[in-house]
Amino acid sequence: MNIEDRIRSRCYVDPDSGCWHWKGDLKRGPRIKVNGRTVQVRRVVANVRADRFAHMSCKCVDCVNPEHVEHLTKSQYEKRKVRGRDWHAAITVGNRNRRNGKINAGIASEIRASVDTGVALAAKHGVSEALVSAIRHGKVWAEVSPWML
Question: What does the domain layout of the chain look like in residue ranges?
Answer without folding.
Answer: 3-79, 93-148
